[in-house]
């Protein structure tokens, strides 16, 4: 029994040593990333009951590097203190967490963000999670301040977005059409007159006159239609049809002359 107990203790010690090493490596990485935004806290700033490891506080603001802070906007100047301490079995169990106001946060808000981070930590068990919790806290602060992330578009992204927007507009126009209202008609009239220099009413009247059939035009078009009909029936052009008509008349006259000669004889 004693050798078995010793073996179990040795395995447990090895696991604890690995966890301690992982915790130390995480703290070292966080300090190199966050620098002056991370510090050890004690006393009233620390977490009550944290005895395994020191308590660290990370200052979290709404804005990031390169974003200009408005000193008159209290939501932007606010600072959240995210305090954490590793448990003996971290990261196999969540860390101890506490949120405190460094500047400009209310107790109700601190309760809200603490609950958010504890829930988020439960889903990250088994991996180093402090930096992820800091990121989550920063997103909460940005939402509180109404800060909108601006994504810089590449030329390809811009072209694709414009094409998609144009396609959506075309789909909407095909679906419902473009309704004509008094306002839209007046706007169209103003654009037409500005571009052409002609009153829209005068242009409409000109189109109406152009489309109306006058007497002269009627007879010209009617005569053209009769000529075309004659050409279709005779297989010749109007001039040729006229020549054929004259030849018919000449033959009739010759026949009449021959009949007269026969009678005189």
Notable traits:
265 residues, alpha+beta, 4-stranded antiparallel β-sheet, 9 helices, 4 strands, 62% helix
What's the layout of helices and strands?
Blueprint: H1 2-34, E1 38-41, E2 55-61, H2 74-77, E3 79-85, E4 96-103, H3 107-122, H4 130-145, H5 155-176, H6 182-196, H7 200-211, H8 215-234, H9 238-264
Antiparallel strand pairs: 1-2, 2-3, 3-4
The side-by-side strand order for the widest beta sheet comes to 1-2-3-4
Strand content: 5-15%
Order of helices and strands: HEEHEEHHHHHHH
Shape: elongated
Distance between the termini: 168 Å
- Strand tally: 4
Question: How is the main sheet built?
Answer: 4 strands, antiparallel
Low-confidence segments, ≥5 residues, pLDDT <50?
261-265
Structural class call reads alpha+beta
Descriptive account of the structure:
The protein is α+β, with helices and mostly antiparallel strands and about 260 residues long. It has a 4-stranded antiparallel beta sheet with strand order 1-2-3-4. The protein has helices spanning about 1-35, 75, 105-120, 130-145, 155-175, 180-195, 200-210, 215-235, 240-265; strands at about 40, 55-60, 80-85, 95-105. The protein has 9 helices and 4 strands, in the order H-E-E-H-E-E-H-H-H-H-H-H-H.
